[in-house]
Amino acid sequence: MNKLLKPLVFLVVMILVCSVIVRVSNSSRTLEEYALENPEIAYATPQKTEEPSAVPTESPTEEPTAEPDDVIYYEKGFFYCPIPMAVKEKITGVSYPATDSLISYDDLYYMQVLYYDFNGEVQTGELICNRSLAPDFAEIFYELYRNEYQIEKIRLIDEYGGDDTASMIDNNTSCFNYRVVDGSNSLSKHAMGCAIDINPFYNPYVVFNKDGSGENYISPPGSEIYADRSKDFPYKIDENDLCYKLFKEHGFTWGGDWNSCKDYQHFQKVVE
After folding, report:
1. Distance separating alpha carbons of residues 254 and 256, to the nearest angstrom
2. Which of the residues 2, 17, 197, 222 has an alpha carbon 20 to 30 A from that of 187?
3. pLDDT tens by residue, 157-210
4. Stated pTM of the model
5. Using CA atoms, how far apart are residues 244 and 235, in angstroms rounded to an integer?
6. CA 197, CA 168: separation in Å to the nearest integer?
7. Shortest CA distance to 157 belongs to which of 101, 114, 196?
8. How many CA atoms lie within 13 A of 265 on its CB side?
């Protein structure tokens, strides 16, 4: 069987070669010319198949989990929307009380912004704020981003179990947290989503002695060295700081302007 197969294959090849020669001779072209013009036939060279380009996998934090019609984009990477269900489940019983809240979910917005961290790398941050202030926050954080203003972290306070002190120690920038003012029984403006703390470890909360003899209380622990605002150090918020200027332009008040205490990290705005 093998002896018959070899001559048969040889015969087929010869027929094909002769056919090519006849075609070439009829068109007054040499085999070399034909081969150059038709390499895929003459040399049976397989054509390269391009591999499909890889489709990048987007980070789940880059797109909202709300319905598309509910999302308001300020710029790429900057949007706000009603609080998505997954976020509601995350914050309920932590930063948002399970019962007896004076603010509803509908009064709050979930936000994502881009920012430069302390290594100069772009990160995605999450905030929850009063819905009426979302446009302000979007514009302010976009301008901070454009100017490469450095913020160490922007995470929901729920990443710290709703513990404001733990968040401050980690120098986390945060907004909404249904809590009272430190050292009092009064609800904080944070409980309404109307206040934000920026780089809090470097811009502490300072309460003075009533007799004016000095500081009575500094928070967070470990930030005492930054209570002396006569010193020059990185990430310090003062009247010359871009963050201060932007929040003031948008009608926010600064805790650093208060008298009985100073909250250098804190900006708040009255909601009508």
Report:
1. 5
2. 222
3. 999 999 999 999 999 999 999 998 877 788 999 999 999 999 999 999 999 887
4. 0.75
5. 12
6. 9
7. 196
8. 29
